[in-house]
Amino acid sequence: MGFLFWSGISALQTLFLPGYLALRLLRFERLSGLHTALFSFGLSVTLNHFLVVGLVLAGRFTRPVLLAVLLAELLVWAAITLRSKPGAPATPVARPRELPFGLLLAAACAVAVFAAEVPRSAGLVFEYWDVIASWNRWALDWQTGHLPEVTYHYPQLIPTSWSLLYVFLGHPVQFLARGMMALFPLGILLIFLDLGLRHRKTEYLLACVFSAVALVLLYGSFLGSGMADLPVAFMALLTLFPFFTEDFSRNARGRLGAAVLCAIGCGLTKQAGLYAAALLPLFAWWALAPAWPRARRAKVLAALFVILVAGILPWYLYADSQLATSELSVQGIRERTAWERLMRGTKLLRKSMTAPILAGSALLVLFSLRKSKMRRITLGISLPFTGIWVALFCYDKRNLALAVPFLAWSAAAGAETLHETIRTRLPQVLRRPRLAAGIVIGICALWAGATVSSEAILKAHHRQLMKAGEKELQERMIDHQRKRGFEGMILTDYRRLLAFEELRPHYFIDRDAPPEEFWPLREGLELFARVVEDPRNDIRYVLKKYLRGEGAIDAYIDDRIRSGSWEELFRADDYRLVHVLEPEVGP
Question: 3-state secondary structure string, 313-357?
């Protein structure tokens, strides 16, 4: 059978079928086709991980065994489908208003751009060193039926997923594995798009757009690359978003079952996923509070905790607690002060985002705190995980990935809150023009003070100075000052040197000279020679446009250079800089 046939079979097992069967068995409420597909994907990679581990431990990780498993799953699917009765239609969601067309179009375009990454990635192999030397190496170990060695405590959900594809295909062809990785960032956008369409809320569409922008700015080169950071972000969002967007007491069994499986998958994707898994019992307690008594919730929480520990802990016990290379990186961060860590994290983000975007995003996240529902997201996930990243893991911005969709969600809620505030309060403020003007000026002043540094202004000023004059000459003069220094005064008619702080103290001006003798280089050889040879003036350099010996002053300079009393240092932009070695020698 051909490669495309096995590709389809492996994709069915890896991306959909096990998770879909789990949803049916849990009687999970399917609110939309996209909702079902997203959870089927997340649950499939989790269940397949345990399938691979079990088969490797049993020494039966082969294509025939996988085909038997797939056949059994298809039979279960058929049995469930035949026995199931047409369910009642899902309760329609109230649609109080239409969605803004522009925002809907922006979200659709963002999804389309990320969807286009899937077929593009499916035609590429892994390129990054970490993926080749670690993640794919571990996948090859699983494929050959061996537990991977030297994993540095890294979980193995992504390598086991790749190994499943490799066994089905019969070769470790990386096309499908890399294409699969592009589905995770796409899944983040699809979650928000599905929520926006079902609930008819601009907040979720804004979160979709903000997530797309943040992922491109921060991780553009990593989309579909094979890194585990974006998959853990998807799994965390898939685990936690239903606690804030649905009536969780309805179909609580199905929702909790799907959530705990996704949380286990999140913790087995990368260590950062343990944060989302730890939050699951807490958010379940809050979500079930309106409908369930305290005693019942306590039992459920205990069961959730036991299931999470049983699903996640064994791997970490096997891999031991030695973080090896990770510990070295963390130790380097811990040696810095809290302020230094904050500045380092900000600097990392500034490489991908401009200061106004970063400051505006932070402002919107803070505005989200005005929404009671968003406080648990912003104060429970977005800000705490960002703080953990700054404190321990800001040696690489990839470690922040789990928080990115939640930060985008918080920023979207903040933007909606800000818009509503402006819409309702601005008319009142505009009735007081002085107050309005003061607020605008104050905001602009705060923004400028927070985002524009003195160093940035000085660098911009220096760049403009360089453009305004003879660029090469000015660069050579400043370079000479920084490397060797000027020990005396420079006699020159190139007035632009006065604009540079490094050179201004060495620029010679005889302020006591009469007007007709103020510029020695323009008043003839006699005045020039008298000024240069007067020891009180301390003239040690002459910078003059070179006229190729046609002028008397140039001839005088050439004569001094030939005699060895003066030395030409360089030429640039038709100027030459001459070092006066013996200033008291007469003509």
Answer: HHHHHHHCCCCCHHHHHHHHHHCCCHHHHHHHHHHHHHCCCCHHH
